[in-house]
Amino acid sequence: MIGRSLLILMAAGAAFAASDPSVDGPFASARQTVDIPGTQNATLVTDIYFAGTTATGVDPAAVPCPVIVLGHGFAQSRNQHVNQGMQLATRGYIVLIPSFNGGSDHVRNGQDLSKCVDWILARNEDPASVFFGRVRTQTVGASGHSAGGLSAILAAANDPRIRVLSLMDPVDNGGQGVAALAAVNVPVAITWSEPSACNASGSAEVLYAAARGVRRGLKIVGANHTDPQDPAGFLSILTCGGANSTRQALYRRYMAGWFEYHLRGDASYAPWILNFPGGQLAADLAANRITYQAVVPLGLALGLTNGVLALEVSGPSGQRFALERSTDRGPWAPTATNTTPVAPVVLPVSPSVDLELWRTQSLP
């Protein structure tokens, strides 16, 4: 049995040095349109965005580049996410945005996102390709808006190469997304707009409740279903309202920031994506620009410090946590705050971990 003489220690790390994920990064961006072999022998017309120029190829300073596949919404196209693709490319990502052929066949559209992953990984091995040796093959993320967010969930549930999800006002259909999330064991961020007929009265909140493991749910106050598009499509403007540049920037901030932290692995983005004192998310929350809920990764380790058995809690800097007795779930120690930045430790299922008779739990 572990006695009450346990000490709580904090792991040290580097200082924060991240830039606002909603703004351009240090690289020029370029776009190519290619035909990718899709499902049912169809061709996926796909825009590919990357750091560099069409004349010189991928900027060597950005290499190796993480990959993001992004799905557009129902009755929309890749043209509704041009500016997001370009902005992510300036931050060193390779972004593939296809125009889906599947209509409301969300499973097929998810499979076509995986076809995009197949294609870019094959180009990384092709000496004749501009992407030869330029891809960070173990860091693939997926995003999507509306039905495209559902397609991204379905892709991640069936494609282990997809390591991170960051979704924009996703809309479920017939419970497909809720069911698929039971098989998704990667960090999931869902950012959503105000409930309306356009997003099935807030379908994203139901999807967030079904997510497991490391996750964050965030509503952009006052946003509509068009705001995740950039540029906005005419049909969406007509039926769901016009986009607002400030809300579009907030969507970029919280979609891209999740990738910077969890896909690229840059721990300095923690205060941009989680509610840490002094961070930008905390400022947006205090200003009522967003609402927020999250379950974040924590790690536990046992060791001896000056001859005393110690429990080390590691996780993102500033994350509040509490210890509970597993026998009666009563509090063992006052709520504490991790005050030094550390690299994220992603646990396989949940950030609440049983350690003999003790456990630690992250708090919002």
Features:
364 residues; alpha/beta; Rossmann fold; 2 domains; 10-stranded mixed beta sheet; disordered N terminus
CATH architecture of the largest domain: 3-Layer(aba) Sandwich
Taken in chain order, the helices and strands follow as EEEEEHEHEHEHEHEHHHHEEEEEEE
Radius of gyration: 21 Å
Instruction: Output the CATH homologous superfamily of the largest domain.
Output: Alpha/Beta hydrolase fold, catalytic domain
Overall number of structural domains:
2
Gross morphology is: globular
Structural category: alpha/beta
Low-confidence stretches: 1-16, 325-361
Please state the average pLDDT score.
Answer: 84
Largest sheet: 10 strands, mixed
Helix content: 10-25%
Number of strands: 17
Oligomer: single chain
Number of DSSP helical runs: 9
Bin the strand percentage: 25-35%
By CATH, the topology of the largest domain is Rossmann fold
Q: What would you note in describing this structure?
A:
The relative contact order is 0.14. The two termini are 29 Å apart. Strands 2, 3, 4, 5, 6, 7, 8, 9, 10 and 11 form a 10-stranded mixed beta sheet that branches. The chain has 2 domains: 7-15 and 296-362, no CATH class; 29-265, Rossmann fold (3-Layer(aba) Sandwich). The chain has 364 residues and is an alpha/beta fold. A hairpin with a 3-residue loop joins strand 3 (43-53) and strand 4. The chain is built from 9 helices and 17 strands. It is 25% helix and 29% strand. Mean pLDDT is 84; it is low at 1-16 and 325-361. The radius of gyration is 21 Å and the shape is globular.
